[in-house]
Amino acid sequence: MLDATDLRILRALQDLPEASIEEVGRAAGISHTPCWRRIRRMQEEGVIRGRAYQFDPKAIGLGITVITMTKLDRHDEAALGAFEREAGKLAEIVECYLVTGAYDYALKIVTRDMEAFETFLKTRLSNLPHVGDMHSTVVMRRVKDDGRLPI
Amino acid sequence: MLDATDLRILRALQDLPEASIEEVGRAAGISHTPCWRRIRRMQEEGVIRGRAYQFDPKAIGLGITVITMTKLDRHDEAALGAFEREAGKLAEIVECYLVTGAYDYALKIVTRDMEAFETFLKTRLSNLPHVGDMHSTVVMRRVKDDGRLPI
DNA sequence: AGTGAAAGGTTGCTGGC
DNA sequence: GCCAGCAACCTTTCACT
C-alpha cells in the first residue's frame, strides 16, 4: 500500500507542516508533481485525513483537561452505540476511546475551569445512556501533545 | 485578549480547515483583510500554534494504541524533569500529561502491534528515569478523536 | 477597527514528455 | 518519474469609511 517514498512524504509533512509541496518533495527525494500526486492518492485512500489547526486551549479560556474513565451498566451493542452517539455530540468530550480493562471508555474532556467541569460531569456526562461508575484524573500539565506519530 | 470575532474565526478555522482566508472571514462576518490580520496576530500571540496533518495510524501500520498510567519513585523536580526529558525523546509516546491521582503521568503510546508494544514497554518505558509502577489500558476502538476544542 | 481593490509571488493542479 | 504552464490563492500594501 505505502512504499518507502510515501513514508518519507508523510514524515516530511509531519516535520514541516507549513512546507510547500515542492519542499516536501525535496525532503522525500522527488520533484513536486509526483509528490503532489502521491499526497492526493493518500488523501483519497484515507491515509491522510486532513489538516487541523492547533490552538492553545488556555488562550481560548479552556484551562481544565480531565481524563475520565467510564463504565457502562450494560455491554450489548445497543448500549455501546447509544453511549457513543450521545458522547459524540458533546463538544467538551474531545476524545473518546473504547478500551480494555476495568473501565469501558476513556474520555478526554476539556472545559473552561473546574466549576464548568463539575457542572458538565453532573448534568451532562452522568446523564449519558447507560453510564455507571466513573473515575476522573485531572491533567496538571501538558508535557507532550504534538499529534506526531512514530512513522 | 480575544473578542467575539476572534472566536468566530477560530471556530471557522476548526470547522473548515481547508477554507481560504476569504471563506473564513465570511463565516466570521468580516472581509478577508482584517481576518488575515487577526489570524496573523493570533499566530504571533501563540493562540494558533500551527496546522498539523492528521494520518490514519492503521494505514501507516500503527495498529496499537495504549494508555499507560505511570508512577515515579521520586517526586522532586529533578526526577520529574529527567523523566519528562527522556519520555519526550521516545516517538512512540505521542502524548504525555502530568496528572493528579494515584499515578503521576498519563501516556498515550502508539506502536505497530502488541509485540512491538511489549518490547517498547520492557526495553524503553520501564528504563525511563525513576519509573515505578505502571498500568496499561489498551484502546480497542477510536470513537472520537478529531482534535476539536469546545470553542 | 472595518471595507475594497490591486500587485506580486507562491502554490496547487493539469497537461505532455 | 520530470518539465512547462495556467489558474487560484495568499500576502502585503494602499486609499478610504
Automatic annotation (TrEMBL), chains A, B:
UniProt keyword DNA-binding, yes or no: yes
GO biological process, one term: regulation of DNA-templated transcription
GO molecular function: sequence-specific DNA binding
Record flagged with keyword Nucleotidyltransferase: no
Keywords: DNA-binding, Transcription, Transcription regulation
Segments forming domain HTH asnC-type: 2-63
CDD domains reported for this sequence: HTH_ARSR
GO cellular component: cytosol
Gene3D superfamilies per record: 3.30.70.920, Winged helix-like DNA-binding domain superfamily/Winged helix DNA-binding domain
Pfam family, one: AsnC_trans_reg
Organism domain of life: Bacteria
Family matches, as PANTHER family: LEUCINE-RESPONSIVE REGULATORY PROTEIN, TRANSCRIPTIONAL REGULATOR AZLB
Protein name per UniProt: DNA-binding Lrp family transcriptional regulator
Originating species: Aureimonas pseudogalii
